[in-house]
Specification:
The protein has about 575 residues and is α/β, with parallel strands linked by helices. Helix content is about 30%, strand content about 15%.
Length: about 575
């Protein structure tokens, strides 16, 4: 999901999340510079210039067991098939018709792919053996000798589109197509494609992202594309489960979900993939953070002296869809909290984005009656607009606990919340300190292939699913199928894990006794707090501060001392020149 964003990172049109990062060290200048190497009150090390160098400094590991480390066709609302392709009009059978990788492809910088002098892609996978010979032609539906056909979903949900435009994004179909084709051109300069190219077939969403009927119909339209596609990249976020189920029933891979429970990904393995992390993985982080850093301690950041004197009691408000797909994650969270002797005093679900808007006053009233000191906002990014407004009208003084849910942890959304309420917000996030757009990897990638172009706020959202897809294609080899794709991702090296680069890894994992096959991306999180008076890296009022320079924690790595929030010492709100990009 993504709509406004962290400088530019959050404009994801509520159906696509921006990923982040880069990899080569460059000696960053932090905004609000932490003291390099200083030890904080919680025993962690503040990462200043020591955060550079692409090392694991800037994060804290835990007890997770991990592995080693162009234009296209359009399908509009009519659902009809596309016109001419920039690639061959017929599926070639001769080896001579295979697309030739450029000389820049699969060139190594150490162990990973070298991606040129303009930008070293932060999540570049390892190099693979040089390919020569027959790629096998049609290895799976949508895979041909010279191309891999994929459907690219473009949201037309008016709520999402208006949010993108309000945040400074383009919001037009033509812009999304431009971003996609630019990133395809970039990836195919550097990744091994085994004689194939990605051929995008664009499909515009036919309704609201919460409309399950429209989501199912859109999936069926994708399944009817002729010649067929291998995968769908992007989709309607709120109705992503219905959309993914329909696609996988037709043998189509789906890079289209955001933070669903592990049970869903296991059921549809190896067909469904996503950015960020599953809700199961995020709940492990949340439970550990609450159990170690918040529980049995006074609610010292509440807005009332009576509450500040009380030991914390927790309420939670959470998003669900009409099918109740998120309920299992909440039940898992309760079991994880029980490991730390913590029980939620009040749990309040709401259904779809509009459910919070219509029921905000009642939700706040229930929390007031329950007498909680601290409220976990495990919501979509719009919900706190209504919750904080209602809370202020009812003179609520509790702490707000940021959980990293649904872009509530991004600057541009947080600016929309009632600032008196949100000035008491702190917690954890999958995001990272702000970086100016021009210094971001996604901006540099686009400008390398479109020097005269101007990528807007939603460009990273267009890029996001392609990071996953190209990594798997590059590592899978010429015999490309969903199974070979998954096996390739299991071999992918772990990347990121520094102050502006969340850690990405895939495959078999065991985390705090929970075993799963990870088809989502992120592993680590960071601690932050909201400052309504601070300007961000792009000069906008209101910003999150990142504790200890943006130090990231893996599962099992959270310290047991009280949060070091609402103090600027050692914290950053952004980096003018990121040390790890």
């Amino acid at each position: 999901m993504k709509i406004f964003g962290r400088t530019s990172r959050t404009v994801a049109a509520l159906g696509a999340v921006v990923m982040l990062a880069a990899c080569t060290p460059r000696g960053g200048i932090p905004l609000a510079n932490p003291t390099a190497g200083a030890t904080t009150a919680d025993g962690s090390v503040v990462e200043g210039d020591s955060a550079s160098g692409g090392s694991n400094k800037g994060r804290t590991g835990g007890n997770a067991v991990r592995k080693n480390q162009a234009g296209g066709k359009d399908i509009g609302d009519s659902g009809g098939t596309a016109g001419s392709s920039q690639l061959s009009s017929t599926i070639p059978t001769e080896r001579s018709a295979q697309f030739k990788n450029p000389k820049t492809a699969n060139v190594c910088a150490g162990r990973v792919i070298k991606t040129g002098s303009k930008v070293q892609f932060p999540w570049a996978p390892q190099c693979v053996p040089t390919f020569a010979g027959d790629n096998g032609g049609e290895t799976y539906r949508g895979v041909y000798r010279d191309r891999i056909r994929v459907a690219v979903y473009i949201t037309r949900d008016p709520v999402v589109v208006s949010g993108v435009r309000a945040a400074g994004g383009c919001g037009e179909v033509s812009c999304w197509k431009d971003y996609v084709t630019a990133y395809i051109d970039w990836f195919e300069k550097y990744y091994q494609m085994y004689g194939r190219r990605i051929e995008p077939i664009f499909i515009e969403g036919s309704g609201s992202e919460a409309n399950e009927t429209a989501a199912r119909d859109d999936a069926r339209r994708i399944a009817s594309i002729d010649p067929p596609v291998m995968a769908a990249l992007g989709g309607p976020n709120q109705a992503s489960t219905v959309y993914a189920e329909e696609l996988t029933s037709k043998g189509i891979m789906c890079f289209c979900t955001f933070s669903l429970p592990e049970e869903f990904y296991a059921k549809y393995y190896p067909m469904v993939w996503g950015p960020l992390m599953s809700s199961t993985q995020a709940y492990i982080h949340r439970a550990e953070y609450i159990g170690k850093r918040l529980a049995r301690k006074p609610a010292r950041h509440a807005g009332d002296p009576t509450l500040r004197a009380q030991k914390r009691s927790f309420g939670m408000v959470y998003f669900d869809n009409t099918r109740g797909d998120y309920r299992a994650g909440v039940q898992f969270f309760q079991k994880q909290l029980a490991r730390y002797g913590v029980k939620l005093k009040k749990i309040i679900p709401y259904t779809n984005i509009d459910g919070c808007q219509t029921d905000a006053t009642n939700i706040v009233n229930q929390l007031q009656i329950a007498g909680v000191t601290s409220v976990l906002a495990n919501t979509d990014p719009f919900c706190p607009i209504h919750l904080t407004r209602a809370a202020n009208l009812q003179n609520a003084k509790w702490e707000w606990i940021v959980t990293g849910s649904g872009l509530t942890d991004t600057n541009n959304f947080a600016r929309l919340y009632n600032q008196e309420q949100w000035s008491r917000a702190f917690g954890i996030s999958m995001q990272q300190p702000d970086v100016k757009n021009e210094a971001e990897y996604w901006h540099k990638m686009y400008k390398e292939v479109r020097p005269s172009g101007d990528p807007k706020e939603e460009a990273p959202a267009a890029l996001s699913p392609f990071i996953l897809f190209y990594t798997g294609v590059h590592l899978a080899g010429p015999n490309l199928t969903p199974k070979s794709f998954a096996a390739a991702m299991d071999r992918a090296i772990t990347t990121g894990g520094t102050v502006t680069l969340p850690q990405r890894s895939y495959g078999r994992k065991t985390v705090t006794g929970v075993s799963f096959w990870d088809t989502t991306s992120y592993d680590d999180m960071v601690e932050l707090w909201w400052d309504p008076d601070q300007q961000d890296a792009n000069g906008r009022q209101g910003a999150y501060w990142y504790v200890s320079g943006g130090k990231r924690y893996e599962w099992g790595g959270w310290p047991s001392t009280a949060p070091r929030v609402f103090t600027k010492k050692g914290a950053v709100y952004g980096y003018e020149n990121p040390p790890d990009q």
